[in-house]
Amino acid sequence: MEGLTDPLMRQILTQIAADLGRPYDWSVSEFIRVTQHVLPAHVFYKYVPELHHDAKTASGTPIHVQLLGSEAQLMAENAAYAAELGAPAIDINFGCPAKTVNSHRGGSVLLDEPEVMYEIISAVRRAVPAHIPVSAKIRLGYTDTSKMDDIRGAIADSGADWLTIHARTKTQGYKPPAYWDKIQNFNSLSIPVIANGEIWNAEQAQNCMMQAGTQHLMLGRGAVTRPDLVARVDNDNNKNSENLTTLLWTDLIAHQIKFLEGAAKSDVVLVGRYKQWLGMLTKGYSEAQTLWEGIKREKNRAVIISALQASV
């Protein structure tokens, strides 16, 4: 999720999940755009600083390196270099709906070219050592779902180790609902299929798994909105209602302060990123809405931290 799950956010969310006793199996980096050459090491380290620490966050969650591009050989060479730098897995982004990305022949626009998808995935698979998984992230299609069979065939023949599906087309964007039942069209693949899209609570997670016909989920914006979502889904999935894990607003305050004290190019950037997160938290916490009303025009980081501490 470009601009949302950067290294600082990954550090915070994976730590919360670990503290709640349900760490993420893995997390995926923001996409790294591959265009004209093999990227230098400092670019990979910028997007995935966890590569300096065995490709794991401080809480021990592995970070998979996600690449986005349209030239198979160039994608393969960059994937091989990422693996050399320590990437535990390579994920290929065919799901990004951003107009700028699509206009440069990246992300979900390639869903209209299943043969190119096949070339990219298979080239990356050949270039990366056999013990390092290669996965793909897709949507149900670009403008519609008419090419789902061709996309499934491309994935089947590519050598991908698993497939993550956001259950909407590019045209449908992020507008509810997500069409979880259409994920079943991919369940004939011999690899795990991971469902994604419009999962904001444990009930929706259960409905998604049932309709998609898979037990594998990827949490996205819902995990940013409710940082305890992974634990709540796990508790619900295991019928463990007696030990329901809930992250209260008071518990979340320290993590928000840690975010505001994190590294960034400037206070302006950091405050902007925090307000983006706080805006999403308003969907999960009434206290966040109250805080948002008080600091939405505030630019001073110290003032925001004081307001946050006072919101208990």
TrEMBL record:
Family per record: Belongs to the Dus family. DusC subfamily.
Binding residue positions for FMN: Q66, K137, H166, N196, G197, E198, G220, R221
Residues at the active site: C96
Purpose: Catalyzes the synthesis of 5,6-dihydrouridine (D), a modified base found in the D-loop of most tRNAs, via the reduction of the C5-C6 double bond in target uridines. Specifically modifies U16 in tRNAs.
Protein name per the record: tRNA-dihydrouridine(16) synthase
Site keyed Interacts with tRNA: positions: R33, N93, Y174, R273, K275, K296
Entry GO MF terms: flavin adenine dinucleotide binding; FMN binding; tRNA binding; tRNA-dihydrouridine16 synthase activity
Originating gene: dusC
Lineage, top ranks: Bacteria, Pseudomonadati, Pseudomonadota, Gammaproteobacteria, Moraxellales
Pfam families: Dus
